[in-house]
Design goal:
Layout lengths: L23 H11 L3 E2 L28 E4 L6 H5 L7 E7 L6 H5 L4 E4 L23 E7 L3 H8 L4 E6 L14 E5 L2 E5 L8
Amino acid sequence: MSYGKTVGRNPDQADLRQWWRTPQELFGVLHSVFNFTVDACASPDNALLPRFWTKEDDAAKQSWQGERVFCNPPFGGIAPILAKAPTASVAVFLLPLTALTTRYFGQTPAPYVLIPPYRIRFTPPEGLTVRTISPSLGTVVLLFGEVASNQLVGLSSLGWLHYSYRQKSDNASETPHSKASCVHAGCHSVRYSEPVTADT
């Protein structure tokens, strides 16, 4: 469903490299928690939901209001799609862990950040020539919208770390790192609470 997991080097397969699929097992876990209504970046061959937006539909041009969106976007076009996330009822993004250091993340910080305790092995599209399917990057899951505490605890029980967004305090007595960790995104600094686990 993603068209953004690039590992092949054949220039003739440049478009095909954009269609790596989210593992069904992982999607099933997230879908059971958030009950998605649309797969935002998909093709007819790899869509994980009955309703999906293709590259031609362009998720960045769709209305996300009232939707519960699952999105594994293209690596080269994340920013305009991520900017739509706050307008959804719920939006769940799968991104490379390196997204946390980008400017677009600083411009659209997620209220919740989840980090799985393992690297996700995405499924290559049929016909793509790859040397290896061993994941080279970790994955971060960004949550936007109506997320309940029991949903976060449920994912934390799987060993996923989760961080909650904190507005910067105007209280001069609060030190820059008190009760928060900072994720630097370009010239932005986004404050998150300490990781929460199922035992917290």
